[in-house]
Automatic annotation (TrEMBL):
<dbReference type="Pfam" id="PF24016">
    <property type="entry name" value="DUF7330"/>
</dbReference>
<dbReference type="InterPro" id="IPR055754">
    <property type="entry name" value="DUF7330"/>
</dbReference>
<protein>
    <recommendedName>
        <fullName>DUF7330 domain-containing protein</fullName>
    </recommendedName>
</protein>
<feature type="domain" description="DUF7330">
    <location>
        <begin position="46"/>
        <end position="250"/>
    </location>
</feature>
<feature type="region of interest" description="Disordered">
    <location>
        <begin position="1"/>
        <end position="27"/>
    </location>
</feature>
<feature type="compositionally biased region" description="Acidic residues">
    <location>
        <begin position="18"/>
        <end position="27"/>
    </location>
</feature>
<feature type="compositionally biased region" description="Polar residues">
    <location>
        <begin position="1"/>
        <end position="13"/>
    </location>
</feature>
Length: 261
């Protein structure tokens, strides 16, 4: 991992500002945390595609950050850049992925004004481009993604997939939306804390797939969850491994001690 200490004193940001009631001191706290961590340079869109090398470390993205040219690693996929306000995408074939993704709120804007008339296709396009996307995919090894914190109104979309490995995801406590999981011969597990916030939406229980609604703690400040209307999405799947979901800040979970769906 490269050292970016010299770049942290002045972090350029876009001047668009969302009206999502996130206190300025929350932004300042995020920046201070970032400056004290050994993270790569923050960018808007990040893509790492290493077929035979493991991907690990701490990365920082944010819609408030400018695009970087040339990119830090691989060139972000055009469709991902087009469809999301910010993104971090990790891909391998035979090696594991084990990353933490910090997401800066900053001053990034681009929200659709509520008073602005929108035809349906334009509204859908605007909503899609508001998403912050985090993805991990390994063909034959494990995927571990940790998103420790997330605030604001932009929907958070996490997608993790493996064919033969385990998939472990730590979601932020402000996560408020849908969880969709799928296995073939594998198993799905939630930590007790995640389970306490989950409501099954399937008419019948199935050992191979399921959909749940995760409701954030109502005691959290409204600005952390987009007033409870953000609509986050978590999609996880594996064929033969284990799926494990827990809350960021909990002791890292294994299948032992989790709730089996």
């Amino acid at each position: 991992m490269s050292s970016n200490t010299s770049q942290r004193g002045s972090m350029p940001m876009t001047n668009e500002r969302p009206d999502d009631e996130v206190p300025p001191d929350a932004d300042d706290a995020q920046i201070r945390t970032y400056m004290n961590e050994d993270s790569e340079q923050p960018v808007r869109h990040l893509f790492i595609d290493w077929p035979s090398a493991s991907v690990k470390g701490l990365y920082t993205i944010g819609a408030c950050m400018p695009d970087v040219s040339p990119p830090l690693f691989d060139m972000p996929l055009p469709e991902v850049v087009q469809d999301n306000a910010a993104s971090a995408v990790f891909k391998t074939r035979s090696s594991p992925i084990n990353v933490t993704v910090n997401i800066l709120h900053g001053q990034g804007g681009g929200l659709v004004p509520q008073s602005t008339p929108q035809v349906p296709n334009k509204l859908a396009e605007s909503m899609r481009k508001n998403t912050v996307f985090v993805s991990g995919k390994s063909v034959s090894n494990s995927v571990t993604i940790n998103v420790p914190n997330y605030v604001g109104r932009r929907p958070l979309h996490i997608r993790c997939k493996s064919t033969a490995g385990n998939v472990t995801v730590a979601i932020p406590r402000s996560f408020n939306g849908m969880l969709s999981w799928r296995v073939e011969t594998g198993t799905f597990h939630m930590s007790p804390e995640v389970s306490s916030h989950a409501k099954r939406l399937d008419a019948e229980q199935n050992k191979r797939h399921g959909t749940m609604k995760l409701v954030a703690d109502p005691d959290l400040p409204a600005w952390m969850t987009g007033n409870g209307k953000r609509g986050d999405v978590l999609e996880i799947s594996t064929k033969t491994g284990r799926l494990i979901v827990y809350m960021a800040g909990e002791k890292k979970m294994t299948a032992h001690g989790c709730v089996v769906a």
